[in-house]
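Quick illustration, no need to memorize.
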Amino acid sequence: MRLLLTALLGLTVSLLAVPAPSATATSGLVLLALTSEPARADEPAAVRLVATDAAGVAVPGLVVGVERLVDGAWTLVQPVTTDAAGAASLPVTASREPAANLLRATYPGDAARPPAASAEHALSLVPREGRVRLRGPRTVVDERSATLRVEWAAATGQPVAGTATLQRRLVAVPGESMTPRQRRRQPWRSVQQVETGADGTAVVEVAPRATFRWRVVAPELPWVTGARSRVRTLRNLPPGIPVRLPAGAPRPRRTLPPQQRAVGTGANPVVTPLPDPVWNHMRGRSWRPGCPVGRSDLRLVRVNYHDFDGYRRRGELVVHAAAAGNVAAAFAELHARRFPVRSMYRVDRFGWSARLRGADDYASMAAGNTSAFNCRQVVGNPAVRSPHSWGRSVDLNPWENPYRSRHGLVPSPWWAGREHPRYAWRSHQHPVVALMRRHGLRWTYGRSDNHHFDAVGGVRGRPAAGLPERLADLLTGDACGGVCK
């Protein structure tokens, strides 16, 4: 018992010997806090500073620096002095970039107080309403470019520098038809990213090969809301002159898809030997064993032309090697003078015709298709081989320029007594007939076979010397009683 009392007495003395906390150890500590009201970019935000001691008592008369993070370094914005309530306020312009809106308050300390710094505080942005406009022409000629201008700004006028997206939606393809439902179901597709500069604008060059609707989609940024421009339609126009058929003129009975777009500038005629795919497609259609010319005698002529809609297409004709230059030059001038051609598919596309014993020229004419070599019999006279079998004959725009066969006008009698200065001819003085004649392609049978031309090497009279005898007879009509189509 005596030992226990002695131990308790010793503990009490030890506790009394521990010194009490110093009043000055915490009285000099300063706590700094920053708050602010949300603000719009480029406008001042009201920032409030509060300084207290460790007990939460306001510290008046304290000079505190408010700093901002600029390019990764803290930079003094403004020193402030706390009032009687330990508070101070100052305006700080809100930046568009969140990283530049980071603040802190610092106190360097003095003899009575140690240095202090507040926790970092970020200004809160209220986004402005964003607006984006798309300006530009309403039309563009096919194969040319159009300039579109993007203007991105806040509703209050401040330009927006950033990355927007240019989008388009298909409306119409030249030569192809689309129903309203098909147009509505076309998706919006992103074409490219557009960078607007400090003035909020960007210029974009586009060269659409069809009619599209265009728009710009601007994303949401920290200081401005997202936006989408109004839709702008840019109509694709033909470089040539579209054909305007007379009232009541019938259309071809067969419809062909538009051929591929023109390649290169101008007519760009290219003459080559027959490639394997072309020759393989011809065999059993426009060529068969026993024909008067073979593969080595023939050439493929690829040339650009203006179709009836005024667009430039790339066509193909198979002709004799000796006539390839004449044909290429003639069609190059047709292109240069913008005389229209309905289509220029190789006649093999229409398959074999038992009654013609060659490719189906009836079907080709019914489509208004321009063609050349076809080892077959004369239309309406199966006892005679056609001049087309030698690859020196060309049928140009047959629908509007019918042939008077033994069983009537084909492919359509409507045009028999009509002509047009660009695509239907009924005399030797017609511009197209004169053009073909200049290039050694004679309008052999005149109005009896309006669409038929022959490469004979001369302008008038009998065929030039050097032609096969049988072909020379055909080109005078002697072998078939007048016309050998």
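Helices lie at 2-17, 23-27, 180-184, 276-282, 324-336, 361-366, 431-438, 469-476.
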